[in-house]
Amino acid sequence: MPEALSADWQYVLANACYLGEGLVVTIELTVASLLVGFAAGLPAGVVEVYAPRSERAPVRWLGAAVRNAGIVLRGTPIVVIITLAFFAFGISPAFVAATVALGFRSAAYQTQIFRGAIQSVGVGQMEAARSVGLSQLQSIRHVVLPQALRRSVPGFQNEVTIVLKDTSIAFAIGLAELLTKSYDLFQSVGHTTAIFELILFVSAVYFVLTVTANQSLEALADAVSVPGSEGQ
Amino acid sequence: MAESATAAAPAEGSAGAPWRGRNRITLAKWAVGLAFWGWVLLRWLNDWLGGVLVPPGEPFLQAAVFTGLEAGVPDAIPVVNDALVGLAFAVEFLPRLVNAMWLTVILTVVSIAIGFVIAVPLAAARVYGRVWAVVSLAYVELLRGTPLLAQLFVLYYGLPWLPTFFRELPWVGAGFLPGQAVFVAVVGFTLNSAAYQAEYIRGAIESVDTRQLQAARAVGLDQVEGIRFVVLPQALRYAIPGWTNELVYLIKYSSLAAFITVPELFQAAGRIASQNYRYTALFVIAGILYLGLVITATNVMERVGETVSIPGVGTAAER
Amino acid sequence: MSDVPLLRAENIHKRFGDEQVLRGVSFEMDTQDVQVLVGSSGSGKSTLLRCINRLAEFEEGEVYLDGTPTSEMDVNELRQQVGMVFQDFNLFAHLTAVENVTLGLRRVLGQSKADAETRAMRELEQVGLADQADSYPAELSGGQKQRVGIARALAMDPKLMLFDEPTSALDPELIGEVLGVMRDLAEGGMTMLCVTHEMGFARQVATDIMFLEGGTIVEHGPPEQMFDHPEHERTKQFLERLTTLHGDHG
Question: Residue B284 is part of which domain span?
């Protein structure tokens, strides 16, 4: 332990493992929530785009239901959602409650990302697909979605950073993620002065995670991009 | 060819038929909005002025009214019964929650306003500066790349002189002026919001054609005047969707102030729930109140956008 | 030659909002006919084409394909039998040229990947683009894109091909290559209904020219009649103007 560092920094480094456990939970929670959000948000985005124009009334109702659910999820603070999940609806353990809360909230935002991307794929693509004889579902699956997903990358990058930072909200239900662990550390007797160093350290970790995630998604986008489409 | 068709049909749905179709929905929205805010303002004024209509903290309509109604309504209609029972309960706690909502509104409005004042120069620095561009970039990336809750903790627990500074100001915490924690929270939200607003404004400035500024310089305006009188008026209109986003964000994340002891809406709901364990009811009501704030904000900003809109400069559909 | 016309449109009425775009359009096409549809912009030409493959739905009237009303057919089956080529090409941007052609073969006709590719390469050869099979649409010129579009439609073995202003979005020097493909198609016996301004092409290849204005077919007849001695003054004016503007890219 380098002598040159202040006592507070030494405290931080000494507890690096403890914080590391919190970091693992943070990453797990982020990934799980994003997956839930994707699994629910992509179909919801498709529904929001195509259901209103359907000839069948139940399909239109589904579209309206999805849209209203989205409005509620996007208009309610995440702390309220997570508190409802854990304390009110009793979802347990805390990790699952946090995943459900963050996941469905993310789904509501991902719905908008995918909806925008689908709508940005020109209607001519759909018309061409239908005129060859593909059904609406086939057209969506083979022509619209492959293009829409590629266009969703910037919005999705944004969503990743938001979910990553919002895992800190799990503090409200005592889940032992990174911020909660650092809070425990600086609340412990004799070390309340270390708060500044702790938060600085933890913030740096979040920052590195954010940059890493963004760069990875950037690389993924390049790998699957359609040659010649850079102008999109 | 098309003339005869349109000449024959009357101008339906235009200004000549104000209460049809879409305008009925707008009317309904206005009615609900006014009812909501009317009730909220009535509650605030009532309690601040020491109890004009009812004693402070007491509901306008007593719970007994609803339980009485519920007894009167035949049990055959369970939905109505449940709703009335729910209302009877909710009515007891609504005054406290709505009063706490005042802080939510204060936190949001003050933070976004001061944040805006800081954000404009930050954005301008990113676009037009050299050294200042780097400083601005560092600030924005730092504040956007770390959790807001961590930032609040730093300010409240990590800089002990900050709460102390506020506590020692003479009028803080006196009467119904908010206590020191609220001021610290405002500082935190302002700094964070400034970073996000700077990004939205920067994007908006960059949407404005560079030739606009060139034309301004050619007419004789200097750099600052050109930015102020030509670029910004256009950029601010492009920024409206992003700015609305930030407003909604602040309304929701003001709830984090609860974790640095600010008695706003979320904190109030939590405090009541920890005593009577009615978590579901209380947080659903809190959620509805937040939704009310958010929906008001988005609708108001939509009207603002329409009012200031200039043909060809930004669109509401650019989200 | 069968006694039932391949395509029959009967009294088609179509409205967009307040505007009545098609007011009782009727016409017939026999197999191997090449009919050209002309009219000023907004006259409803594209709309009429879209009514035939039901990309647009009409309120009144009926369309018969080989005697069967299209409203009674499964819409996807209808579209297998009627091919469409678009003004904006509408190639599937995320797929290569050959993949654009095989998509319908594999997903609609259920062909295997190998069979589909064989067929697709044959179609691409026909339009002269076999060497660009693995190129993406963004890498192709406008004329090449449109030829892929034609190959894509032809691969489905349609009974009828609809062309919606196929060369209007092309630079002048590229128009010829597309018209060449269309001419070869016509000479090969394909039944074609084309909305186009290319009067040189119409004069040389069309069996019938229809002039659409005010939502109805004002006049129709073989090219010699329409160009040289039309019945209506309006027809004469319009065709003369078109020929002046669009000359001959034949």
Answer: 59-308
Size of interface A-C (CB pairs under 8 A): 79
- Residue C235, C-beta contacts closer than 8 angstroms, at least 6 positions apart: C211, C218, C219, C226
> Could you tell me which chain B residue has the CA closest to the CA of A75?
B291
Question: Is residue B6 one of the residues assigned to a domain?
Answer: no
In a domain, C204, yes or no: yes
Tell me how many domains chain B contains: 1
- How many folded domains does chain C comprise? 1
CA distance B123 to B121: 5
Name the pairing type of β-strands C34-38 and C7-16: unpaired
Per CB-CB distance under 8 Å, the chain A contacts of C156 are 132-133
- Classify residue B149: in a domain, yes or no: yes
Model pTM score: 0.83
Look up the domain containing A74 and give its range: 7-224
In a domain, A230, yes or no: no
Could you give the percent of chain C with pLDDT greater than 70? 98
Residue B244, classified by CB atoms within 10 Å of its CB into exposed (0-12), middle (13-18) or buried (19+), is buried
CA angle C175, C181, C185 (to 5 degrees): 140
**In-domain check, residue B1:** no
Domain that holds residue C78: 7-92+158-246
Task: Report residue C85: phi and psi, to 5°.
Answer: -120, 130
C171 touches chain B (CB under 8 A): no
Give the tens place of pLDDT for each residue, C101-121: 999 999 999 999 999 999 999
Give the residue carrying structure tokens 């996007």: A74
Is the Cα torsion angle A152, A158, A159, A161 positive or negative in sign?
positive
For residue A203, being part of any structural domain is answered with yes
ipTM above 0.90? no
Q: How far is C19 from chain B (nearest CA, A)?
A: 6
pLDDT tens figures, A139-152 = 999 999 999 999 89
* C-alpha pair distances (Å), C60 with each of B222, C12, C55, C137: 65, 6, 15, 38
CATH code of the domain containing B296: 1.10.3720.10
Q: What is the mean pLDDT of residues A10-25?
A: 87
Q: Is residue A98 part of a domain?
A: yes
- Radius of gyration, CA atoms only, chain C: 18
